[in-house]
Amino acid sequence: xxxxxxxxxxLDFTRAKRxxxxxxxxxxxxxxxxxxxxxxxxxxxxxxxxIILDTCMGGQIKVTPTDIEIHVDVPLKFKLFxxxxxxIVKGEVQACVERAKCxxxx
Length: 106
Hints:
The chain is of the alpha+beta class. It has one domain (2-100): TATA-Binding Protein (2-Layer Sandwich), CATH 3.30.310. Helices cover 38% and strands 35% of the residues. The protein contains 2 helices and 5 strands; from the N terminus they run βαββββα. The protein has helices spanning 13-30, 82-103; strands at 2-8, 37-42, 45-52, 55-63, 67-73. A 5-stranded antiparallel β-sheet has the order 1-5-4-3-2, with helices on one face. Strand 2 (37-42) and strand 3 (45-52) form a beta hairpin. The mean pLDDT is 83.
C-alpha cells in the first residue's frame, strides 16, 4: 500500500536536489543496518530501497520546485506506525535543509 508525503523545502530546485543528494548519502553512511539503496532514475526522482525488521521496503523520493515528495510502499504490518514515521521524516527533511543553509551548501 503506497503512501505519499510532501514537505516544503523553501529552496530553488537545484539547491533542493543537492540537499536531497547529501541527505541520502548521509543516511547510507550512518544507517548501514537498513541497507539503503538509492538510484536516481530521472533528474528529479530517485528509487530507494531499505530493510526494516527483515522486511524489504521501497519507494521514491521526488524533488519538485516547491516540495520534497516521499512515496513509500508501506506493508500492512507497519501501517500503525505510519503517522509517527511521517513526522520523523518531516523533521529530518527540515533539519537537512536547515543544516545545508547554515553550512552554505545551498
